[in-house]
Amino acid sequence: MTDRKGYESKLQISYQELESTYEELTALQDELMEQYNKVVENQALLQASEEKYRLLAYNDVLSGLPNRLSLSEELTDFIDKHPGGQAALFFLDIDNFKYINDTMGHTFGDELLVKAGERLLELSDGRCRHFRFGGDEFVILIKEVDGYAEVIYYAESLVQGFSAPFELDASSVHISISIGIASYPENGTDAGELLKNADIAMYKAKEAGKGTYVIYGEEMQQHFDERMIVEHHLRNAIANNELSLQYQPLVDTGTGRIWGFEALIRWNSPVLGVVSPLSFITIAEDCRLIVPIGEWVLRKACRFMRELQAQGYEGYHISVNISVVQLMLDDFTDMVLAVLEDTGLAPEYLELEITESIFMESFEAISSKLEPLKQRGIGIALDDFGTGYSSLSYLKQLPITTLKIDKSFIDSIDTPNNMSLASSIVTIGHDMGLNVTAEGVETREQLEFLERTSCDKIQGYFISRPIPEKEVAGWISGRPAG
After folding, report:
1. C-alpha to C-alpha distance for 216 and 226, rounded to whole angstroms
2. Which of 167, 243, 194, 171 is nearest to 76 (CA)?
3. How many CB atoms lie within 10 A of CB 361?
4. Between 20 and 30 A from 129 (CA), which of 25, 175, 276, 330?
5. Dihedral of the CA atoms 22, 26, 27, 28 (nearest 10)?
6. Spatial distance between the Cα atoms of 434 and 437, rounded to a whole number of angstroms
7. Of residues 313 and 2, more confidently modeled
């Protein structure tokens, strides 16, 4: 009996130990299950995080379109897998987007970019891949293209599709796009070369007048290389004293006296020779070299006119062309006033020439900068009038003092219709309280016609070609100022 009691006691103890062990195992199992669930949860979070980072890495946050990295990989993958295939790369840029962004604000600009991305998707035929390349640039990849006719048709549909206005903040915004097109494998056998050539073609489209498309050709590379050479040498033109000014007289038709001069820039490069302003001014604007060059022209012209007045040639005015790039600077107004103060030229002897297309791009922003200058007595001339977009309603709101009739109207006044048109421009200007200047006067017949229409001032080869600075004093000697 004693032994049996001992065995039962030991069995009870073993049972208790077993029960305790079971409880520990159960607790451990629960803990392991909890840790397993956490591992599964963390793995799901990790996968979601990886997917999120991949989405961020390969897609544009603003528009939701695939980005530059995605384009590079997809284009490279297509080339690797389709060595004998055909593809077209469209490089799109929104014309004048910077001015829209600067005048309407970055939020407005971002909304326009989103709408532009949506418009691209709406215009797609389902075979295209769309990418936001950066800024206001988009790229479209069309795989397995069947000839140039398809490429041209799609390019024209894009240009036409973007001519419809965008509705933003209860405002209708009209924009255009410039498109450069490169074909695979004709214009490049790798992603980098295709993108570069499509980009070159896009800049060619902008030079052609914007709102159009250009297909890349080999001659464009030479043009692009030459452009880079011009830009390289232009960067040192001011420091190396390669720039100079010539002055073309403006004559008061009522009195026959000299009113003043228009300052015209010239560049004589020791490497490139004499470079036409028609070519290097555009390049200077694109790379923003026009900012220091424009200030240099204004300062030099004002100083020259002040020195001319100090020599006894009083009463003459100076007219200086201003680029839209300069006008978009926040400190433009302050810069002009500082130049006048530094050179000592009175404001009433300075006239700034602005092309009418500039006003249409950023009407309110530019007007707000020119109005204070006009209030100081500085003249504001609307250059090349009649070749752009001006309407009479806009014309009345512009802070201008002078209309300049474009040379193309003067060249053709021998026909009755054009004669009537030129006469009407003079009448409109006078009715609005503006002075009117005709440029490009080359014959006595043109001069006599402009005198009959009471055009206020004229300039052109009939009066004089542009005069080098050192010859101006001799040219005006004995001629009265008006």
Report:
1. 16
2. 194
3. 19
4. 175
5. 100
6. 10
7. 313
Rounded Cα distance between 104 and 401, Å, is: 27
Residue 184 CA to chain centroid, in angstroms? Answer: 28
Q: Can you read off the two tokens belonging to residue 71? A: 């384009």
CA 432, CA 112: separation in Å to the nearest integer? Answer: 36
Rounded-to-integer distance, Cα 269 and Cα 359, Å:
33
Convert the pLDDT of each residue in 37-91 to its tens digit: 777 776 766 666 566 666 667 899 899 899 999 999 999 999 888 887 889 999 9
Cα first-last separation, the chain? 145
**Residues across the chain:** 482
How far, rounded to the nearest angstrom, does the alpha carbon of residue 283 sit from its chain's CA centroid?
Answer: 12
Q: What pLDDT is recorded for position 201?
A: 92
Which among 155, 339, 156, 318 has a CA at the least distance from the CA of 250?
A: 318
Quick one: DSSP state of residue 133? E
pLDDT of residue 360: 57
Residue by residue, DSSP assigns 338-358 as HHHHHHT--GGGEEEEEEHHH
DSSP-assigned letter for residue 406: -
CA 59/CA 140 separation, integer angstroms: 15
Q: What is the pLDDT of residue 55?
A: 60
Average pLDDT score, the chain: 86
Q: Are 404 and 382 in contact (CB under 8 A)?
A: yes
The pTM assigned to this predicted structure is: 0.65
Residue environment code for 338-347, b if the CB has 16+ CB neighbours within 10 A, otherwise e: ebbeebebeb
- The residue ranking higher by pLDDT, 421 or 114, is 114
Instruction: Please give the single-letter amino acid code of residue 95.
Output: D
Q: Which of 142, 143, 126, 133 is nearest to 81 (CA)?
A: 143
In whole angstroms, how far apart are CA 198 and each of 91, 137, 180, 202? 6, 12, 5, 6
pLDDT band at 477 (very low <50, low <70, confident <90, very high): confident
Q: Omega of the bond prior to 347 within 30 degrees of 0, cis?
A: no
List 235's β-bridge partners, or say none.
Answer: none
- How far is residue 257's CA from residue 89's CA, in Å, rounded to a whole number? 59
